[in-house]
Structures are given as C-alpha cells and as structure tokens.
Amino acid sequence: MFNKDIGIDLGTANTLIYVKNKGVVLNEPSVVAIDSTTNEVLAVGNEAKEMLGRTPANISAIKPMCDGAIADYAVAEAMLRYFISKAYPKNPFTPKPRIVICVPSGITPVEKRAVIEAATNAGAREKHIYVIEEPMAAALGADLKIYEPTGNMVVDIGGGTSEVAVISLGGIVSSRSVRTGGDQFDRNIIDFVRSEYKIEIGEVTAEEIKKNVGCAYYDMNTEVKEITVKGRDLITGLPKTLTINSRQVQHAIFDSIDIIVDNIKRTVEDTPPELAAVIMEIGIYLTGGGALLEGLDALISKRTGMPVHIANNPLECVINGVGKIIDDVDVSNKLTPSDKKTLA
Q: What is the pLDDT of residues 228-254, one digit of tens each?
C-alpha cells in the first residue's frame, strides 16, 4: 500500500517523522522562529526552541500547535514543509510522499481538515493523506494485542492532549480526549511560581522543573527532590533565584492530573462490562511524554484500582505505531474504516 512514504506525529510539543524502512528519522520541537517584520522563517525545531523567551522584539518564537490542533495555520505549514524536506530530501525524480498523520481522537472536522491541508501544501501527494487517531497508533506502538476480542486500554499523555481509549478487534470501543497534557503542567508550574513566589519564569524553565522534580504521587518511600532556577522578580523587576521541590510541583499540577484521571474513569464507565472486566485484570498502558512523570502510574492505579503499566519507549509509541502501518500492509488492512481514512 505504501511505498517510499512517511508517517508524522504532529504533536503540540514535538514532531516526529518516520520514513518507510528507515524508522524514526526526525524528532524535534514543534517551534518556529519568525521575523515579525518580514514574516520570514528564521529557524525551526531545535534551533527555534532555544530562542523561546530569548528573542528580540522583532523575532517571535511560535508554537503553531495548541492543545493538539493547529493554532497558526501558516506557521504550521511552514514547519511541516521544513520537517518533511529534512526527513525526505527531494530531487527532480523524487515523487511526493504519501503520508500517514496522527490526530487526536477528539479533534473537530474543521481541525482535521486544517491538518490535512497543511500536510498537502507542505509537500504530500494530493489525495494520499491517511489519518489515524492517536490512541490507535499509541496502542500499536506499545505492542498491545488490539486485534483480539479482548480489552486494551491505552492512555496517551502528550503535550497538548491526553487521549484515553479502549480498543478491541482493531477498533476503538470507547474513548475520551481532553485538552490537558504536558504543556498544561508547564503552565500550572508557571502560575504556581508567580502566585507563591511573585517570580515570573518562562516555559523552558517550567519544563525543566517538571522534568527534574515533577511528581504526581507520594508515599513513604518517595524522595523529595529540589531544583534551583532563576526568574524575574515581579516586584523589583530584577533576576531572582528560587528553589522549588517536588511536593510543590505535585500541588501545582494536581488539578490537571485529576482531569486526566477523571476521564480514565469515565472511559471505563462507557466500556461494555465484558471488556471492562478484562481491563481490570490486564490493566492500563501509559504512553506519551506524560507517562514519564514520576508517580503517575502509581496515582492512576490507586485512583482506579487497576494495574498500570508504562509502555516501552513511551515518547515514541505513537510514531512507532504509525511506522507499523507504513511498513506492514497487513497491519494497515486490519484497521477499521473509522481509524484509517483517506481525506483530501
């Protein structure tokens, strides 16, 4: 079905690209630096992320994806064009690629159309863009037995959205998509530091705090970690140093995590009893960058009463699932029509 084609995980935080028979060839932040006076693209990906919070007045470092959807169409198209050309170098004899691209399960038809048009204008072959919902791709990438008549529950916590789905016989039985993820955790930390310390920190610093001392659950054996960072004092306007610990971060992100847990419970409630009973025994599989948050698996297990497993290489589960579709025609043919569509 696919030949010399590529898969794209167009994430709010990072974009990953998979090329047939080559594997993951690109993993870079979904950030673009723009000259606001000329609208010229100055940098994309890693180089652009380094500019976040550090640009002069005429340069803007933009994240074109917000909560799993395109927030700035022109910038998203420019970013996709750059990433595709980097992952799939063209010459006069190279055909345009066909693309499999992931979208959140809760995306609206208008948002889905925007993703497809951006991919087409960025260099995909017309009428050959295939979309797959992120939970299905994540389940494939986590090596779950999704084609068997049993229940598989996957929770993919990305930068912009958290996808919860129960999958059986190659199709999604019940699902929920909530626009809360790693980026919201960062915003929670920024708000907490501003409120508690009267200090302003940027997105990069908030992400550093989350990755180094972020924690979702505590018990007697949990180590309290600390990190020292710098920000701007809101009263004096001068730089100031502060130390924040993992218990404070847990408090800061609690409400956002509670939303994710609540949607997991609601998804189980919507699941047929026979499948729910199997999930109670097999457990929940966590994928996405959020799965790496310390204690999240323990918290979800405690709140749901079910075993919780962190998938191998959770950051790349979605793109690896897309890769299976591209590399293996049998896998592609097994997907139900609701999970694999040609839209252009």
A: 999 999 999 999 999 999 999 999 999
User: Cα–Cα distances in Å, from 220 out to 217, 223, 224, 267?
Assistant: 10, 8, 10, 31
pLDDT at position 330 is 54
Tens of pLDDT along 197-231?
999 999 999 999 999 999 999 887 888 999 999 99
92 shares a domain with 33: yes
Question: In terms of Cα–Cα distance, which of 160, 98, 152 is closest to 123?
Answer: 98
Residues 160 and 31 in one domain: no
Angle at 318 between CA 174 and CA 27, to 5 degrees: 155
Sign of CA dihedral 317, 323, 328, 332: positive
CA distance 252 to 190: 9
Is 240 part of a structural domain of the chain? yes
**What would the mean pLDDT of 102-112 be, rounded to a whole number?**
86
pLDDT confidence of residue 112: 87
Whether residues 284 and 160 fall in one domain: yes
pLDDT, the chain, mean: 89
CA 122, chain centre distance (Å):
21
Contacts of 49 (CB under 8 A, 6+ apart): 29, 31, 61, 204
* The two structure tokens encoding residue 244: 């924040």
User: How far apart are the C-alpha atoms of 208 and 198, rounded to whole Å?
Assistant: 19
Q: What is d(CA 227, CA 213) in angstroms, rounded to the nearest whole number?
A: 7
Is 39 inside a domain boundary?
yes
Say yes or no to pLDDT of 37 above 90.
Answer: no
Same domain membership, residue 199 and residue 95: no
Of the candidates 249, 215, 254, the one whose C-alpha atom is nearest the C-alpha of residue 229 is 249
Let me know whether 323 and 296 are in one domain.
no
Domain count, the chain: 2
User: What CATH code is carried by the domain that includes residue 107?
Assistant: 3.30.420.40
300 with 162: CB under 8 angstroms?
Answer: no
> What's the rounded Cα separation, in Å, for the pair 81 and 69?
17
* Full-model pTM: 0.89
Domain span holding position 31: 6-136+318-342
